[in-house]
From TrEMBL, chain A:
<feature type="transmembrane region" description="Helical">
    <location>
        <begin position="261"/>
        <end position="281"/>
    </location>
</feature>
<keyword id="KW-0813">Transport</keyword>
<dbReference type="InterPro" id="IPR000515">
    <property type="entry name" value="MetI-like"/>
</dbReference>
<feature type="transmembrane region" description="Helical">
    <location>
        <begin position="23"/>
        <end position="48"/>
    </location>
</feature>
<keyword id="KW-0472">Membrane</keyword>
<feature type="domain" description="ABC transmembrane type-1">
    <location>
        <begin position="73"/>
        <end position="277"/>
    </location>
</feature>
<protein>
    <recommendedName>
        <fullName>ABC transmembrane type-1 domain-containing protein</fullName>
    </recommendedName>
</protein>
<dbReference type="InterPro" id="IPR035906">
    <property type="entry name" value="MetI-like_sf"/>
</dbReference>
<feature type="transmembrane region" description="Helical">
    <location>
        <begin position="107"/>
        <end position="131"/>
    </location>
</feature>
Automatic annotation (TrEMBL), chain B:
<protein>
    <submittedName>
        <fullName>Extracellular solute-binding protein</fullName>
    </submittedName>
</protein>
<keyword id="KW-0813">Transport</keyword>
<keyword id="KW-0732">Signal</keyword>
<dbReference type="Pfam" id="PF13416">
    <property type="entry name" value="SBP_bac_8"/>
</dbReference>
<feature type="signal peptide">
    <location>
        <begin position="1"/>
        <end position="31"/>
    </location>
</feature>
<dbReference type="InterPro" id="IPR006059">
    <property type="entry name" value="SBP"/>
</dbReference>
<keyword id="KW-0574">Periplasm</keyword>
Length: 291, 373
């Protein structure tokens, strides 16, 4: 998790010292693997986006003039933002709880997050289909308390619920990693200086936990941009995310150039957002004087 | 780049190329010209004993009970009789097939695919049928393509909830679109990457076009009609999902494949079919271009089309046989869903697969845009 936190908060003034000497060689196998399995295909995809079916930027001009493609991109970013927010709201108290309970309870809380994490995404998503469908358990429970059946599946809400559950570990774990390192005596000190518990929490604990929030939020948001199975099963076609549109182009129309262009645009948007977040974090850190 | 590294890169590349060349030379023996399938015209369902000794083929299909049935009914007996070793793969994936053909490394010898797609890719990704090896005389003429034969047939049928509309069942696609008279949700296929016959035809008929004047399809008019009932539509993307929608009773009507309709009813779904205006469709068997052993692939297809093989396939999968001489033994419920029966065929809407093949690309774009909006 430290690595993630470093990515999210590169401005602590500490630069990782150069991977010195011969130990750097240990990186080579991993780098070779990345190059062959990641960079080469990525390069081919980008190359295809400007050569297939004809050389030029036709695929990109198609993308930026297609209302549907643009709407899908915006929708993908919006869903990612909502999922990140919901995940954060659920995970923050959970991770906090993990830092205050006994070791035994903490193990249980960790397992509770990790067990679903180890279950196949497909299986979990199908489980949500069964739970959320009109005649499903959730709606039956809602019925017994007098709330009419809600349309949960084939809606944006269903997609958000499913994605949140899948992505929660990516938020809880970095949050816990940072929160467990926060020195509680700082809170005591704040209260000793006359702060009420809530004030101490908001002004001392929350700022100190921000690196975890940044790391978690970033991981969740970026992962959410590539979701395919969950929106395909829990959403409806009019809520399609960009990965589903890419699938349509690549598999249905065999328009690999367009699919490639969509992939490149998604990658570019993600990188720009990453840069923005890095900038904002650096800004708030220097201004807020955290750490 | 320093010189030394440059040379290493070249060396590695050369070794890689050598390795590729070596693997390309091995395998696939004996070569296509060595195969002797025997004298005389081919007869569906037969293959010369031992003709394919030492040949390895790969059969790709959609998996599940369908592919299991295909293997038991045709592929395994073919392997036993011909001496070929037949491997299975799947599910059929257009992207994978394109990658194989484009790279010249075709590992699928016979592929079960969508009929319209096969027509569209004829000569591009698929090779023409060798009619000296494949006997098509027992197949419906209008279903045999230049590059493909039907693998079985089924239909897109209107299913309705018996508990709701049992007393006054919907009679046609116009009723399917009449949400005032028949309230409730409707399931229709909704795969963005695969616009296929069904929703557009039904919508146009409901909008007043005579079933025999459907083609060329007025796609925009069809989509407009679909928009008018959009809030009542539920889209299914796989056969399994359509079946689940029937079994959970989430919809009151559905446009589904007959095989799935049968399975759902067998599992207790309170649904019944309205056969009027059902749309017959088929899967197709085809051979990818640049396959290593086209003769052997064609021989497998020819064997698959035999009456006995087709009858067995129907018994195992509930899809309807494509060979007119096939006589499957079915229980009462399964025979209710056989689409090849003459009385059913009389109620069928004729689809124009050639038109679909010529226009599918544009339709997919419009269809996926419509779905995403």
């Amino acid at each position: 998790m430290t690595a993630l936190i470093e990515i999210a908060a590169p401005a602590s003034g500490r630069r990782p010292k150069g991977v010195g000497g011969r130990w750097g060689l240990l990186l080579l196998p991993a780098l070779a693997l990345l190059a062959v399995l990641f960079l080469v295909p990525l390069g081919l995809m980008a190359w295809r986006s400007v050569t297939d079916p004809a050389p030029g930027l036709g695929n990109y001009s198609w993308f930026f003039t297609s209302d549907v493609a643009l709407a899908t991109l915006v929708r993908t970013l919006a869903v990612g933002a909502v999922v990140t927010l919901v995940t954060l709201l659920l995970s923050y108290p959970y991770a906090y709880l993990m830092t205050v309970v006994s070791t035994r309870a903490r193990i249980w809380l960790t397992l509770l997050v990790l067990l679903p994490f180890w279950t196949s995404l497909m299986v979990r998503t199908f489980a949500w289909v069964v739970l959320l469908q009109d005649s499903g358990v959730v709606n039956q429970l809602l019925g017994t308390v007098g709330m009419g059946p809600l349309q949960l599946i084939r809606t944006q809400a269903g997609v958000v619920i499913g994605m949140t559950q899948v992505l929660m570990p990516f938020m809880v774990l970095p949050l816990y990693a940072v929160m467990s390192g926060i020195d509680r005596r700082l809170l005591d000190a704040a209260q000793g200086m006359g702060a009420r518990p809530v004030t101490a929490f908001l002004r001392v604990f929350v700022p100190l936990s921000l690196p975890g929030v940044g790391a978690g939020a970033l991981t969740v948001f970026i992962t959410s941009l590539g979701f395919y199975v969950t929106p395909a099963l829990l959403g409806s076609p009019d809520q399609a995310l960009i990965s589903q549109q890419i699938f349509t182009q690549v598999n249905g129309l065999l328009a690999w150039g367009r699919g490639g262009a969509m992939g490149v645009v998604l990658l570019a948007v993600t990188l720009v957002l990453l840069g923005l977040v890095g900038f904002v974090l650096r800004f708030t850190r220097t201004r807020g004087g955290v750490r | 780049m320093p010189k030394k590294t440059g040379r290493t890169v070249v060396n590695v590349a050369a070794c890689g190329a050598l390795l590729l060349a070596l693997t390309a030379c091995s395998g696939g023996a004996p070569a296509a010209r060595d195969i002797d399938l025997g004298p005389g015209p081919a007869a569906a369902g037969t293959v010369k004993k031992g003709a394919l000794d030492g040949v390895t083929l790969t059969f790709a299909s959609y998996g599940g009970i369908y592919q299991d049935g295909q293997e038991t009914a045709a592929v395994k007996p073919f392997a036993t009789e011909s001496g070929a070793q037949v491997l299975s793969d799947g599910p059929t994936d257009y992207t994978k097939l394109k990658a194989q053909v484009d790279s010249g490394n075709v590992t699928w010898d016979v592929v079960d695919t969508d009929a319209i797609w096969a027509e569209r890719q004829c000569g591009k990704l698929l090779m023409p049928l060798d009619t000296t090896i494949v006997d098509t005389s027992k197949l419906p003429k209008d279903m045999v393509g230049k590059c493909s034969v039907p693998a079985m047939t089924y239909g897109m049928v209107l299913m309705y909830d018996k508990s709701k509309f049992g007393a006054n069942p919907p009679k046609d696609w116009a009723d399917f679109f009449d949400t005032a008279k028949y309230p409730g949700k409707r399931a229709i296929p909704g795969v963005a990457s695969d616009a296929a016959p069904g929703p557009l035809e039904a919508a146009l008929i409901a909008d007043g076009i005579a079933p025999d004047k459907l083609f060329p399809l007025d796609v925009d008019r069809g989509l407009k009609k679909l928009t008018s009932v959009r809030s009542s539509l539920v889209f299914w993307d796989t056969g399994a999902r359509s079946q689940q929608l029937l079994e959970s009773g989430e919809v009151s009507m559905a446009m589904v494949w007959t095989g799935r309709a049968y399975s759902a009813v067998k599992n207790g779904a309170k649904f019944a079919p309205q056969w009027n205006q059902f749309m017959p469709v088929s899967d197709s068997l085809a051979v990818p271009k640049n396959t290593k052993n086209p003769k052997a692939s064609m021989a497998l297809i020819n064997y698959y089309l035999g009456a006995d093989q087709q009858a067995k396939l129907t018994e195992l999968t509930s899809y309807s046989p494509i060979n007119s001489e096939a006589e499957p033994k079915l229980d009462a419920l399964a025979s209710e869903y056989v689409t090849s029966a003459p009385e059913r065929q009389a109620q069928a809407i004729k689809l124009d697969n050639t038109w679909w093949a010529q226009n599918q690309e544009q339709i997919i774009q419009k269809w996926s845009d419509w779905l995403a909006n």
